[in-house]
From TrEMBL:
This enzyme's EC code(s): 1.11.1.7
Keywords: Calcium, Disulfide bond, Glycoprotein, Heme, Hydrogen peroxide, Iron, Metal-binding, Oxidoreductase, Peroxidase, Secreted, Signal
Family: Belongs to the peroxidase family. Ascorbate peroxidase subfamily.
Gene Ontology terms: cellular component: extracellular region; plant-type cell wall
UniProt site positions, description: Transition state stabilizer: 65
Chief location category: secreted
Record's protein name: Peroxidase
Length: 327
């Protein structure tokens, strides 16, 4: 009988313990994590990226997406940066073969190691770089939470099941985002990152030649846009690059949503945003130019949310000396 009287108290303590454990992953993720250990960290990243963007502005889109591709596989732990002598790392997986800019992350890491050896993680570098390239393309600024540590595992198979594919429908997209603790709003907001950068024809050619509409075209894609894309992308083209947001490829703005509203989103996953009431409403809202400030604010919030996915903090993982290999 005594034990039964104590059980509610024990249950309460167990619940408290589980909550503390659940929250501990983010306990050391905060703005200004390096304030004492490497106070110039973000300034150093900003300076390197300022130099890079002056000579290679086309890397803004790939560097932003690199952070996405990292966070959706094993969380934001820098695992996408790891090399494998046998070609079995995340970067060797088909969804990641088009990523570019690894040498830029290495350049930033070298500068930080010179200033503060063994302090700033590669995972944090990618998060800060993603913010800085957004700002460099006239996009929003947000305070980046830092304190991530680097993972030691990178598996070629995991991107195949964790990264939302360009041909995903809205149900698949919502499910994959929710599995990472991200909301439907995060999905539609983060999709707006397609406002900068390019894509290979092979990522959307099935919409032009192997779909269910007339002449094998995708009926959800604007017919005039189809003809323009066909003039750029011939059958089997694996190399040509096409702007994801024509006319705005190097400017971070909300014109992506205007294209999606006009059925000119490049990927099937873009078009899918019109197949859900919540995502469609956001597309319609942002397709009005006057709502640009709200998109900027939303994007910063959703990037912070994504940056918390599966992070390693405290004594978990490591701080890599070189981002492409474990210590």
């Amino acid at each position: 009988m005594a034990s039964s009287k104590l059980s509610p108290c024990l249950i309460f303590l167990q619940v408290v313990f589980l909550v503390l454990v659940f929250n501990s992953a983010n306990a050391q993720l905060r703005v200004g994590f390096y304030k004492d250990t490497c106070p110039k960290a973000e300034a150093i990243v900003e300076e390197v990226m300022h130099q890079v963007m002056k000579v290679a502005p086309s890397l803004s889109g790939p560097l932003l997406r690199m952070h996405f591709h990292d966070c959706f596989v094993r969380g934001c732990d820098g695992s996408v940066l790891l090399n494998s002598s046998t070609g079995q790392a995340e970067k060797d997986s088909p969804p990641n073969l088009s990523l570019r800019g690894y040498q830029i992350i290495d350049r930033v890491k070298t500068a930080l190691e010179k200033e503060c050896p063994g302090v700033v993680s590669c995972a944090d570098i990618m998060a800060i770089v993603a913010r800085d390239v957004t700002v460099a393309t006239m996009g929003p600024f947000w305070e980046v939470e830092t304190g991530r540590r680097d993972g030691r595992v990178s598996n070629i198979l995991e991107p195949l099941t964790n990264l939302p594919p360009f041909f995903a429908n809205i149900s698949q997209l919502i499910s994959m985002f929710r599995s990472k603790g991200l909301s439907v709003k995060d999905l539609v907001v983060l999709s707006g990152g397609h406002t900068i950068g390019t894509s290979h024809c092979s990522s959307f050619s099935s919409r032009l030649y192997n779909s269910t509409g007339k002449d094998g075209t995708d009926p959800t894609l604007d017919s005039e846009y189809i003809e323009k894309l066909k003039s750029r992308c011939k059958v089997g083209d694996q190399t040509t690059l096409v702007e994801m947001d024509p006319g705005s490829v190097r400017t971070f703005d909300n014109s992506y949503y205007t294209l999606v509203a006009k059925r000119r989103g490049l990927f099937q996953s873009d078009a899918a945003l019109l197949d859900n009431s919540e995502t469609k409403a956001y597309v319609k809202l942002q397709s009005a130019a006057t709502h640009r400030p709200t998109f900027f604010k939303d994007f910063g919030v959703s990037m912070i949310n994504m940056g918390r996915v599966g992070v390693l903090t405290g004594k978990a993982g490591e701080i890599r000396k070189v981002c492409s290999k474990v210590n």
